[in-house]
Automatic annotation (TrEMBL):
Organism: Parapedobacter pyrenivorans
Keyword match Transmembrane helix: yes
InterPro entries with a match to the protein in the record: Metallo-B-lactamas, NDM-1-like, RibonucZ/Hydroxyglut_hydro
Chain segments annotated as transmembrane: 293-312
Protein name: MBL fold metallo-hydrolase
Top-level taxon: Bacteria
Organismal lineage: Bacteria, Pseudomonadati, Bacteroidota, Sphingobacteriia, Sphingobacteriales
Length: 317
């Protein structure tokens, strides 16, 4: 092991957590990004967090790996809270971005995701979702499709699993040697619909965030795929790591009770999913509107929630 690798394994920057050998988690407000070391003294960034997180990501990368840029950026999917820092990071680093081919329409300016579903309920994060950015992003030639065989550039000991339902080209990453699973949002580790759970990072193995999930039957199938891997540890797009018996039993309970604990009781995509093809959204079910009072309350509460996140971040520094 060379001196640089020793630094990687022993030096953990403030606000960053080593979750497995060669894997670090960094929280950007309410979403996680991951730094993964390669076998040849390089590293790869998994997801890019919120727009406000570019400086924090770049600083943490420098503390972990020196001034070496990532070999690649891999996206689990392209929702706003997973790609927000990309434009800024791509101005810092000359690096390719990789995503599943089914995500490319949403990352090359050709299509918008199915609209968020504030009617899915579950808490303030859902009710505010009509405010979340959902317009197409155009990364032009900076993004390209992952190979269809499940291989991941530069991560030779990892493979990806296509886990749609939350996003059409959603992927999760798995390292067979030690059972490390980077989930993305196929399932998450907190009650993501609740602003209080998110703010406090309360641990709860949950289905994909309700407000952006467009196909619940497909989402359940994706969780089953990941359970069948028998992961030793799962790190998700939202919340803290789950491992061992807590993970095994949590996944079994989630799948067994998926209809009642993951699928919302009402919402735009509950009875009929959005119809997606390789070019984007083909058909949408009718929207289920929120009462006007709820909308007004949500907008007002958004200010309080953002303020709460800001205070929490300051306290963590």
């Amino acid at each position: 092991m060379n001196q640089h690798e020793t630094k990687q394994l022993t030096t953990v920057p403030p606000g960053c957590e080593q979750v497995a050998t060669g894997v670090w988690r960094l929280r950007i407000l309410f979403v996680n990004v991951y730094f993964v070391a390669t076998d040849d003294d390089q590293w790869v960034l998994i997801d890019a967090g919120l727009k406000s997180g570019a400086a924090k990501i770049a600083k943490t990368a420098n503390q972990l790996f020196g001034d070496k840029p990532p070999a690649a950026i891999i996206l689990t999917h392209g929702h706003f809270d997973h790609i927000g820092s990309l434009p800024s990071l791509l101005r810092i680093w000359d690096v390719k971005v990789y995503a599943h081919s089914m995500e490319l329409p949403y990352l090359t300016g050709h299509a918008a995701y199915p609209p968020p579903d504030p009617g899915a309920g579950g808490g303030m994060m859902s009710w505010m979702s009509f405010l979340y950015p959902n317009e197409p992003v155009n990364l032009n030639n900076d993004v390209q499709a992952l190979a269809k065989d499940g291989s991941i550039p530069f991560l030779t000991k990892w493979r990806y699993i296509h886990t749609p339902g939350h996003a059409p080209g959603h992927i999760s990453l798995f390292r067979d040697a030690d059972g490390v699973l980077i989930v993305g949002d196929a399932f998450v580790a907190t009650h993501q619909e609740s602003a209080f759970s998110v703010l406090l990072q309360r641990k709860q193995l949950s289905g994909p965030p309700k407000y952006f999930t467009y196909d619940w039957e497909t989402a359940k199938t994706s969780v089953k795929k990941l359970q069948e891997l028998n992961p030793a540890i799962a790190v998700t797009g939202h919340g803290k790591p789950f491992a061992g018996r807590e993970l095994t039993e949590g996944l079994a309970d989630l799948i067994r009770n998926f209809q009642t604990v993951a699928v919302p009781s009402s919402g735009r995509y509950v009875r009929r999913p959005a119809l997606i093809n390789k070019r984007g959204v083909k058909r949408l079910p009718a929207a289920e509107g929120l009462p006007k009072a709820t909308l007004i309350f949500s907008v007002a509460a958004a200010v309080a929630v953002v303020g709460g996140f800001a205070v929490a971040q300051l306290r963590r520094r």
